[in-house]
Design brief:
Chain A contains 22 helices and two strands. Chain A has helices spanning about 1-5, 15-30, 35-55, 75-95, 105-125, 130-145, 155-185, 190-195, 205-210, 215-230, 240-245, 250-275, 285-310, 315-335, 340-370, 385, 390-400, 410-420, 430-455, 465-485, 490-495, 500-505, and strands at about 65, 70-75. Chain B has a two-stranded antiparallel sheet with strand order 1-2.
């Protein structure tokens, strides 16, 4: 029995490293106290780097499952795990570069971030809905605490409270939906559900369920999608996002907008792919997937339009970025309407682009917030002259967010547009058109930032140099451009991560 | 690797396109106080492309040869869903516009002297703009075309937004939003066509269009090609701009500083017309033929409406801006006629409008730099203190008016004759209506000249210095071109003719 337990346990080494480092950070915080604030950050980054190293090392051949098949290690999961490590490392760097962050007891901050990363690892690395929910809850719990990390600040406390209430509700809805599926099929394993793997005991595939009790399946699907929609802030489950994003410390907002959202997408993509898109899946289930696709199309249309229209009206840059990240969730969903491998690949490509541009945009916000103490558009006046390098980088991020060449954001939009246009004989052309028109709306509010940076003058704006932060931001800006001019590594990486998902182990 | 960097027939277009970008990089390395060095670099980075383009015009480019010349093609994106090549090349239709671009970019450098709050960023953005515009004219890959098309928006936004007039912020974002709204339509058509036939290569897309091989699905009762046609057409019509997509133009022109207006009127508008004959009509020729009459009507509305509105303007620059709408209407009319004369006239009109409208904006800039306003009714008798300016201004505006002997006359006459010859007899009515536009054009130009230069001298203006050497330096080459091409239009037509015939064979497969 012992042997069976430990088979393939080495596959979990990236997770184990994260767990160990998160505990190490917590302990060293007690030892070093305020002396250790930057050292703890470096330890966290080193831990993330080690974890990514293990992931990269075994990217191609670390395929398998462990813990009685509950944890699946495949390239798709590794893609999102690497993504998470990359995002978290930058978030930790942002915490270190955030001039407004306190210096003592910072270990808790890193501990929570690394704990959340572990939650993400389990969430994207399983075909089992039980572990998915557990990973999601681990991520959520860490996120609630992080949102309220500035407990002295009313806004931050409010954000945490709202987040818990909304999060608890959505998780409940999702679990109820999962329990319905379990009742129908007798299994929590997605592959067994899809009929692409043999289950133990009394199980039956979804193919029977969709014919015998379609309304129950529909209810379950809507509820599960609702749970995902909360995590990726898709309408109508997006109401928490602006308040939580605005109230949380900005590095946490960055984490929620990039890492947490990508994790939600990772789990959603796997859920849809394994259940509906595998070539071995029964015809009835595949056809059902296309209906789910049309539901996603409606969600995408509503989400991006609402997000963009609301973003136009904001006076705070942080709140604008919150609404913009809602809109971007809508764009990613547009790729998914295709319900095929192309769509998944486009969604993943878009997420990488989103990573590059949104981390940059939030970094600029943290940089300038630390300088001016405000987050309004007006506080940016004249900074184009005072901090030209950061401001130019900001413009690169903004046009990348808008989706204009020569930036990677354009490439992402292009991939999404291609996937959705190719789907169903052009039936989703309206959605692509709506997405692109939405990007025109978004230009207005993104350019408003550029307008305040460069077009509005403000006498006496000065900026204290922060070379480390500045270097990081300039590198990100450069990457935004480089990955359009030389997109091959990006494309190759996403398509390499696709293989296993559709073929199945 | 070596051969990619040396100056040869296959790399010369790349050099012409990217030398301004190299200049921009160089400028960014210069400390901001050293303005004379910055100006020197900017001048050099626009002068070298002009020399190279002239060499191409009179040397490397072979007249009367079918197809594209000086082609360079390199794989760009080869992985994944998209196969994109970096392909540049020119034919008789793009060559004159490439040359015009390099000329106007060079002229814009000395013309920028009087722009207030001039800084290093201004020249950097100007050079980036030059790279983007040239890139569009030389691209033979639609993906590349689109990238260049969008790349020039951002510098334009800042050039208007930072160095423009009082309402600059509004004008800049309006320009940006309008153009982007058009380009997203282009993008969706582009991606759909790529999905259909799997190529971004413009010549290949033209061949597919000629063979009628687009197989995309019908949507909402309209065929795939019709959708593609309208999406592409609107994208380019916004840029031309033709009625009813023209409303960004007066704002952008009036708020932009003089050299930017020059580039805007001189080359940016040409991108619209060029886009139509390179990236829209020959790619979906069937849909174009079906809708050509509507385009002709839009062209005529632009001609008459633009001229009529120009008549009502009191702002000198706004008047010239509306005159652009009117003159670019001829381009659309000539193209829509589907005759060789019409197409030649349209291509010629694009070049001629590029020189004459650029000259007009420089002329307006001269008086604005002295009076600091552009109210037509507040001037009067300016001819007395500034006789040389008066002569040049009259010359420039008569060129714009289309006086016989000037370039504008030849091209407008050719478009009208071409439209009259159209197989579609309804075009004859359009020609008659557009003649009304010509009368209105004469009216607003003569009236404006009268109000500014003639009449009793307004005492405020009696000490105005006459036009200076720097201003003449910018203006003279343009006026020279207006005259030379009026008398010897074949200096352009000979270069364009073969390409026009080739284009017509794509548009009219029967003939």
């Amino acid at each position: 029995m012992q042997d069976i337990h430990l088979t393939g346990f080495g596959l979990l080494s990236p997770e184990l490293v994260l767990g160990a480092v998160s505990l190490l950070v917590l302990i060293m915080d007690l030892v070093w106290k305020e002396r250790g604030s930057s050292r703890l950050g470096w330890i966290s980054i080193a831990g993330l780097a080690l974890s990514s190293f293990l992931l990269i090392l075994a990217f191609d051949d670390s395929v398998g499952d462990t813990a009685f098949g509950i944890v699946v290690v495949d390239k798709f999961g590794n893609f999102f795990k690497l993504f998470t490590c990359g995002a978290l490392a930058v978030v930790v760097a942002f915490v270190m570069g955030d001039q407004r962050e306190r210096k003592d007891r910072i270990g808790e901050y890193y501990f929570l971030l690394l704990g959340a990363a572990m939650g993400i690892f389990f969430m994207v690395g399983t075909n089992n809905l039980l572990l998915l929910v557990l990973g999601l809850e681990l991520l959520s719990l860490a996120s609630y605490a992080l949102a309220g990390f500035h407990k002295g600040e009313k806004r931050s406390a409010e954000a945490a409270m709202k987040y818990i209430v909304f999060g608890g509700f959505s998780a409940g809805v999702m679990v109820y939906g999962i329990s319905l599926l379990y009742g129908l099929t007798g299994t929590l394993d997605l592959q067994v559900m899809a009929g692409t793997a043999e289950g133990a005991g009394l199980t039956r595939s979804l193919a029977d369920a969709v014919t015998t009790s379609p309304s129950t399946v529909a209810l379950a699907m809507v509820m599960i999608l609702g749970g995902f929609a909360f995590k990726i802030s898709v309408a109508p489950f997006h109401f928490w996002a602006p308040d939580v994003y605005e109230g949380s410390p900005t590095p946490v907002t960055t984490f929620l907008a990039v890492a947490s959202k990508a994790a939600g997408f990772g789990a959603l993509l796997r859920f849809l792919a394994v259940l509906f898109m595998s070539p071995d899946v029964a015809a009835a289930v595949g056809a059902y997937g296309l209906q789910v696709g049309s539901l996603i199309a409606i969600l995408a249309a509503v989400t991006m339009t609402l997000g963009n229209l609301a973003a136009v009206r904001q006076e705070s840059v942080k709140r604008m970025l919150a609404y913009s990240s809602i809109a971007h969730a809508g764009y990613v969903l547009v790729a998914l309407v295709a319900m095929n491998g192309d769509g998944l690949e486009a969604a993943m490509l878009y997420l990488v682009a989103y990573y590059l541009m949104n981390l940059g945009a939030f970094g600029v916000l943290i940089y300038f917030h630390g300088q001016t103490g405000k987050e309004t558009y007006d506080s940016l006046n004249g900074l184009g002259r005072a901090a030209p390098l950061i401001s130019v980088s900001a413009v690169v991020f903004l046009i990348s967010l808008t989706g204009l060449p020569p930036t990677v954001g354009f490439f992402g939009k292009l991939a999404v547009a291609r996937a959705a246009l190719a789907a169903q004989e052009g039936a989703y052309a309206w959605l692509v058109l709506l997405m692109l028109l939405n990007s025109v709306i978004s230009l207005y509010y993104y350019m408003r930032v550029a307008k305040h940076l460069f077009l509005k003058d403000c006498e006496g704006q000065t900026v204290r140099p922060q070379p480390a932060m500045a270097t990081l931001l300039v590198i990100f800006a450069a990457l935004n451009v480089i990955f359009l001019l030389y997109a091959e590594p990006l494309v190759n990486w996403t398509s390499a991560s696709m293989d296993l998902l559709l073929i199945g182990p | 690797m070596d051969s990619l960097l040396t100056l040869s027939e296959s790399t010369i277009l790349t050099w012409i396109t990217f030398i301004p970008l190299i200049g921009m990089a160089a400028i960014l390395c210069v400390p901001r106080q050293n303005m004379s060095l910055i100006k020197g670099i900017a001048g050099l980075a626009t002068f070298i492309p002009l020399v190279l383009a002239t060499m191409v015009y009179f040397g490397d480019f072979q007249k009367g040869v079918n197809g594209y010349q000086l082609v360079q093609s390199l794989p760009w994106i080869t992985a994944g869903q998209f196969q994109v090549n970096y392909t540049v090349g020119i034919d008789g239709l793009s060559l004159p516009l490439v040359w015009l671009t390099t000329l106007l970019m060079f002229i814009a450098i000395p013309a920028s002297e009087t722009v207030p709050r001039l800084s290093k960023a201004y020249y950097a953005l100007l050079l980036m703009l030059g790279c983007g515009i040239t890139g569009v004219f030389v691209s033979l890959d639609y993906f590349l075309f689109y990238v260049f098309w969008e790349v020039m928006l951002l510098p334009m936004y800042f050039l208007i937004g930072i160095w423009g007039g009082p309402k600059r912020e509004y004008a800049a974002i309006k320009f940006f939003l309008y153009t982007l709204a058009g380009s997203v339509l282009m993008l969706i058509a582009l991606v759909a066509m790529y999905l259909d036939q799997g190529t971004f290569s413009i010549p290949e897309m033209m061949a597919i269009g000629k063979a009628g091989a687009w197989t995309g699905p019908e949507l909402l009762g309209m065929s795939f090609t019709t959708w593609a046609f309208w999406f592409l057409f609107i994208a380019f019509a916004i840029k031309i701009p033709c009625f009813p997509f023209h409303t960004w133009l007066p704002d952008a022109h009036v708020q932009a500083p003089t050299p930017i207006s020059v580039i805007l009127a001189g080359i940016l508008l040409k991108l619209g017309g060029y886009g139509l004959i390179r990236g829209c009509f020959p790619i979906v020729p069937d849909a174009f033929r079906e809708n050509a009459y509507i385009l002709g009507v839009l062209g005529v509305i632009s001609i008459v409406y633009g001229a009529y509105v120009a008549l009502g303007q009191t702002d000198f620059k706004r008047m010239v801006a509306y005159s652009s709408v009117s003159h670019m209407g001829f381009v659309l009319l000539g193209m829509a006629a589907l005759t060789e004369w019409g197409m030649n006239g349209a291509a010629l009109q694009m070049f001629n409008h590029g020189t004459s409208s650029a000259a007009c904006f420089l002329i307006v800039g001269v008086i604005y730099d002295r009076a600091h306003h552009r109210d037509l009714n507040a001037f009067g008798g300016v001819a007395q203190p500034m006789p040389r300016y008066w002569a040049l201004a009259t010359f420039g505006f008569f060129a714009s008016l289309g006086l016989p002997g000037m370039a504008g006359f030849v091209s407008e006459a050719m478009t009208l004759v071409g439209a009259f010859q159209s197989a579609d007899t309804r075009f004859q009515i359009l020609v008659l209506i557009s003649c009304l536009g010509i009368v209105l054009t004469a009216a607003y130009i003569l009236w404006a000249l009268q109000r500014v230069f003639l009449g009793p001298l307004n005492e405020k203006y009696k000490d105005f210095p006459d036009i200076n050497g720097r201003e003449v330096f910018s203006l003279a080459p343009l006026l020279f071109l207006c005259l030379v091409l009026g008398i010897f239009p074949f200096y352009l037509l000979d270069w364009m003719d073969t390409s026009v015939i080739e284009l017509m064979s794509l548009l009219n497969p029967g003939s």
